[in-house]
Amino acid sequence: MKKKNHVLVTGGAGYIGAHTVVELLNAGYEVTVIDSLERSELRIVEGIKSITGKEFSFHKIDCLDASAMKSLFEANQFDSVIHFAAYKSVNESVEKPLMYYQNNVGSLMTLLEAMKQYRVRDLIFSSSCTVYGQPDYIPVDESAPFKKAESPYGASKQLCEHILEDMATVGIRVASLRYFNPIGAHPSGLIGELPIGVPNNLVPYVTQTAAGVRAQLTVFGNDYDTPDGSCVRDFIHVCDVASAHVNAIQYLEDLKAGKVFEAFNLGTGKGVSVLELVQKFIEATGVNLNYKIGPRRPGDVEKVYANPEKIVKSLGWNPQYDLGQSLKHAWQWEKKIHGLS
Ligand code: UFG
After folding, report:
1. How far apart are CA 240 and CA 266, in angstroms?
2. From the CB of 232, is ligand 1 less than 6 Å away?
3. CB–CB of 273/232 below 8 Å?
4. What mean pLDDT value characterizes the chain?
């Protein structure tokens, strides 16, 4: 068998990063992971090793550290890079915009410098459907224009995509994956998200409420122009998000010469409301959930879900898990965190 390429994964101990490292190792890639561990823990790295039974190099490096990045690229011959390392809290970004621009844009710039200097050509970038804002039509496809970002976090993702488009002229080829709403955890129960403090996102809030960590879930608004009045999103199992990165690496590897910046929606194409998700959680886990309807959350988009045609056709990607399985896996992970059976 042809030796598989060597992939650098930044932020590989994070939520989507860790699940992607599992998929890469299972697909036979040589993987090097860097992570600052500022927002994750070494036990996730151990979890990846337990799931795959495979070894990989791990370095505690912050992508902003230009000299550490240079040494890393000096010591390794990478064929491609997947860049996850970034902050991702919408609320926090509103409170600390500079921190978000510095970290999210700054780390990409440092990485690109190293890639350029050491002639590493292929990059998969973690983008977000937040670049679309509230699109004029749904399901949204990749040709929809960027609307004014709802938060500095969203603006940082837009900026990064602009920078990456410009990099095509210096020979860096990019697949930018625009994630919709990743949820769930690895079916093994060995890795998952480690939310810091009170979760902003729906599913960690749901599972923490079910586990008794939070008293009650508030559904933010039931007066939207949607079938049941609550917001609509495209929830996608994190392992399906992860597997798309392997397809994207393969896609770039197989390309002939030429400039490339391609964005891909990474969602299921199914719109699910917040209230539908709550019902599905109760049905899939058999656990009751204490929830109430509250006011709208400022800045929320009413409804957004993907047209995933491009990623399905161009990358040959297909999601494997449905919503019930995603929620079961999220619950299994939550129980694991608290030592519940
Ligand atoms: N929600 C609740 N109660 C909660 C938490 C969330 O009702 O306690 C609702 C929100 O109002 C929203 C839906 O659940 O309608 C999903 O909210 P999330 O915070 O889980 O996800 P968002 O769609 O708001 O945000 C996600 C990513 C962001 C990204 C954004 C782009 O977390 O990184 O999609 O739309 F910017």
Report:
1. 9
2. no
3. yes
4. 96
Kindly state the DSSP code that residue 140 receives in the 8-state scheme: B
| Helix (H) or strand (E) run with residue 32 in it | strand 30-35
Sign, CA dihedral 320-7-22-17, equals negative
Q: What tokens were used for 207?
A: 């599972």
**What spacing in Å lies between the alpha carbon of 2 and ligand 1's midpoint?**
42
Q: Say how many Å lie between the CA of residue 336 and the centre of ligand 1.
A: 24
Q: Is the CB of 131 under 6 A from ligand 1?
A: no
Contact between residue 136 and residue 170 where contact means Cβ atoms under 8 Å apart: no
Per the structure block, which two tokens stand in for 245?
Answer: 């990165």
Q: Residue 186: pLDDT above 80?
A: yes
Q: Encode pLDDT of 202-252 as tens digits.
A: 999 999 999 999 999 999 999 999 999 999 999 999 999 999 999 999 999
Domains and CATH numbers, the chain: 6-185+235-268+306-320 (3.40.50.720)
Helix (H) or strand (E) holding 160: helix 152-167
Instruction: Kindly report the pTM of this predicted structure.
Output: 0.97
Give residue 32 CA to ligand 1 midpoint distance, Å: 31
- The single-letter code of the amino acid at 134 is Q
| Host H or E run for residue 59 | strand 57-60
| Cβ-contact 215, 267 below 8 angstroms | no
Nearest CA to ligand 1 atom 32: 201
Q: Which helix (H) or strand (E) holds 239?
A: helix 238-254
Mutual orientation of helices 274-285 and 202-210 as an angle, nearest 10°?
A: 40
The percent of residues above 90 in pLDDT, for the chain, comes to 91
Nearest CA to ligand 1 atom 11: 220
Question: How much is the pLDDT for 3?
Answer: 66
